[in-house]
Amino acid sequence: MAEIKHIFDTEGGLGQIAVERALGEVRAGRPVIVKAGRSHLLMLGVEALELRHAAAFEALGKRRARLLLPAPRLRRLGLDRVKPGAIALPTIDLARIASLALEVGARIDAPVATLGRLDLAALELARLALVLPAVVALPVSVRDIEGEGLVRVEVAAIEAFRRNSVRDLQIVGRAPVPLEGAPETEFVIFRGGEGLRDQVAVIVGKPDFAAPVTVRLHSACLTGDLFGSLKCDCGDQLRHTAGFMAENGGGVLLYLDQEGRGNGLSNKMRAYKLQAQGFDTYDADEVLGFDHDQRGFDFAAEMLRQIGVTRVHVMTNNPLKIAALEIAGLEIISDRRIVGRTTDQNVRYLASKRDRAGHFIEADVAPAQTGGKE
What is the pLDDT of residues 241-297, one digit of tens each? Predict the structure, then answer.
């Protein structure tokens, strides 16, 4: 057994495995133990909370359970917060918890405490699992959870997970995949990075990697890319980029598992429902507890380096992507805009990206309205 453990006990190795197992548990709606030294925290994502869980928490809790919420959600509850916080749960009241975590018109009803390291790690685990970033947490003893078979994960492993995912990024497959309008195309599949699926580098044509290469970082958008949703310009950007590269010396299109600006598909649908009620894209995310953009792009820079790209012409409207590639050490030679269609359904979305997130969009759309509908 010691020899088998040694195989995996590289820097972050066992910790990465533990976090990946914990992510599977959180997504499956099961509780996880977050630990540091002798301190243990029982956590469960709010979206999985049921009566049976409430009974178990109350049996263990002695009125010590609390609801962990990120700063954006606390601001929506009426607080001027830049850091996440905890709300005491004397009883596990499912209706109260659902209201505080998700209801549009809810307001704070109790004092909010500062989060400790275990709490912060529990919230990060929920974010990594792409579930709603709201957690019911309870300090427990080893005796409380002995024999329960719960997955346990160290705080340090959660804190290092994103960084180690970049370090562990590797190519796991590649093959030619001819595309309409870009018949000479190769897909290179990477494992690692953000999200819960593999990442793809789409090499269009025969770009000269010794020279600056045209590059786009494209976050996956199931609704826009595959189904042609009129609510965004993602599908237009994707197809325009591939066509441009095919006609202009080739390039690399990174297709990244960052649905909903890193929030995941289920949360993206929650945000869409809120947008249908009058919220703009950023206000809708804040109602759910998300900042304006959850994505990181350091792993995208590592993907480019692994296929030999170090100098780039970036195709993007997003200044964050340009800055992220520069910070990651790539040389930005130039940046180019990508224009999609303006529709009745996406005009507010485009205005919000331009006016609230600084995107380089010149579309003739009215200024974005902020604040959202209450």
Answer: 999 999 999 999 999 999 999 999 999 999 999 999 999 999 999 999 999 999 999
Could you give the angle at the alpha carbon of 68 between the alpha carbons of 63 and 72, nearest 5°? 150
Hey, which residues are catalytic here?
Answer: 293, 295
Amino acid at 337: R
Cα-atom radius of gyration of the chain, to the nearest Å?
22
What residues in the chain have per-residue pLDDT under 50?
370-374
CB contact set of 60 (below 8 Å; sequence gap of 6+): 42, 138, 140, 144
3-class DSSP string for 130-142: CCCCCEEEEEECH
- Euclidean distance between CA atoms 68 and 170, whole angstroms: 35
Number of residues in the chain: 374
Q: What is the helix (H) or strand (E) element at residue 219, kind and residue range?
A: strand 213-219
Give the domains, in start order, of the chain with CATH numbers. Answer: 2-161 (3.90.870.10), 169-258+295-341 (3.40.50.10990)
**Lookup: tokens for 277:** 């009620």
